[in-house]
Amino acid sequence: MQDRILDALRRGANDEALDLARQAAADAPQDADVQRLLALALRATGDQPAALAALDAALALAPDDAELHFQRAGMLLGARDVEAALAALSQTVALDPNQFGAYVMQAQLAIGRGDLDEAERQHKLAARVAPDHPWTTMVEGTLASRRGEHDRALALLSAAAERAPDDLQILNALAFAYLARGHLAFAEQSFRRVLESTGQVQLRGLLARIMLEQGRPAEAADLITELLADPAQATPAWQTIAGELEIHAGRPERALPLLQAAFEAMPWSPRTTDALVRLWSADDAVDTARETLDRGLVTAPDADHLWVARLAFEAFGGEGAGAVVERWNAARPDHVPALQARLTHHAATGDLDAAEAASRVITALQPGHAVANEFQFNRLLERDPDAAIAFAEDLLPTAHDAARTMLRRWIGLAQDAAGRYTDAVATWASVSVEATEGTGHAPEPTAPPREWPPRPERDDAQPPAVFLYGGPGANADRIGAVLQRMIPAFRSDRFARGVSDAFQDTTAPARFAAGEFTAEQVASGWRAQLPARGIADGAIVDWLPWWDNAWVAVFRAQLPSARLLIALRDPRDMLVDWLAFGTLLTLRIEDIDRAAQWLARHLGQLADLVERDLVPHAIVHTDAPAADPATLATELGRALEIADYPAPPLEALGPDRFPMGHWRQYIQAMPAAIGALTPVAVRLGYPRD
Prior knowledge:
Blueprint: H1 2-11, H2 14-27, H3 32-44, H4 48-61, H5 66-74, H6 82-89, H7 97-112, H8 116-129, H9 134-146, H10 150-163, H11 168-181, H12 184-198, H13 203-213, H14 217-228, H15 236-248, H16 252-265, H17 270-283, H18 286-299, H19 304-311, H20 319-331, H21 336-349, H22 352-365, H23 370-383, H24 385-395, H25 401-417, H26 421-436, E1 465-470, H27 476-486, E2 490-491, H28 508-513, H29 519-529, E3 540-543, H30 551-558, E4 563-568, H31 571-581, H32 592-612, E5 617-621, H33 629-640, H34 650-653, H35 671-683
Parallel strand pairs: 1-3, 1-4, 2-3, 4-5
Keywords: Repeat, TPR repeat
InterPro entries: CellSynth/LPSAsmb/PSIAsmb, TPR-like_helical_dom_sf, TPR_rpt
Pfam families: TPR_16, TPR_19
């Protein structure tokens, strides 16, 4: 429905868009994004007051959504009376002010729905009428910001603000440009000016989020608490935001009543439920959680997130979980998420026939369902690899591109299981080349310096920092899954949304080695991001997407207490895993032999680091961790300096994909690649043969 609304707006079929948006809003009145689209449609049909009301309704549901605030800023802030705004323009615009205002509004509408080309066209029309008007510059700057040209956007919007310092619309645009550029303090200052001038309640949520990202959760919580003093503003959405901020501020006793009140009024909100689940889990308040969630399910039995939360307070695979799963299926027969929960539960209890039966019901309802199809494929893989190949091949014709890539990898796995190793290599090589052709080449390792910086003494005054890294095929994700469960300071956010520092950038090591920036800049840039990542004291286990020995100089000069945790397995098994499953950080593969040669050079750096002990480090072997969780726990405990580190649960660790030494099956299928990796495998402690 949302795509149809946007399509109608792009075609200029504004009445059609409005009808669709009203229908969507009636069907999902609690969906903030639907209210946003309704606002766009209302504005496109000229009903400015109703458009603002719809955006206000969206912001009541999601008060700290920056995108909603951005679109609200595009409407004539502080000038709900459009005619009065245009009359004011006539004092400075010699030509028809209505024409100019229409161009500006059409440009803002186009930006709001993401049609930047149309916004550019409307901007050019506005520039013909009033090229020097601050609003013309404002639209140009806003367009630049949306296109990621942040420095140009700030220059344009700052110039517009200098010429019209009291124009709230320009000030809003400038504030959002600061926010997009990451200049949080300037964004906060600008938004506060708008708040002081307009008294906009909605801005408090966005301001609170900006304060939180600057590491000031208590101040952010207090900002919302002031708002809640007015009973008219104490809505479930604001109570949820306040509760979340109180959790961040370490004040759970203040968070709990806020979130409970919000939940009782709005149990269908996943955000409120998630915050409460965190509190209940921290306090081990299992009975309270069960009672509250069961009460919410009476009111909102169609809310899947409530059933998922309810399952979180039962032992995985236990009788209690089974009872909740059956209640869910009774409440929502033939509902795919409920059936998937049944599949998962039966698989966990070892009742694979019942799980397979559930998977078949799912695929009858939704033929392309990935989880159900994967379960059926894996059962065939165990019983009859040739049948598994046929099953995956039958799914290919109707699969979308991403699913086709996955299915072809499955075919390679089934060929491997059938002992058809040459066929498996051909399948994996083909899908790897095709899936990575749009990415850049893997960076070459930097050359070692003539002399490394001196070794520092460990500085116990610095917060402890551990960096996890594993190369392609090293199964570092399995170590990450374990640490995610067991170490609160573990962060995997670099793989979800990225982090704006040098450790995130695969090109940064070469630039650092070339002298483009200093070790102090690398370390300070990393530290500056920690508060926004929820790390207040600097103690972190940080999962890196990339490692290069250029960072040795940074560790020695700026991070003397930091350690590197290396996930490592036999390099030849790493290659097989890389081809079969791909990597979280996509690296281009042009052919297998060149990929193996590059991997050998990359791992050669790690061998140098280990042999020369270039930085404090520890190795966690990932050759077959599920086969020996106790050894893995010992290695993790040594790496993290935690005595008696517990063995990880197998559901967190996951099964071993291939047995240790599986590479030997591929000596005939890819001899040059195996040969290229054997020397570095020996250096890293693995047998030659």
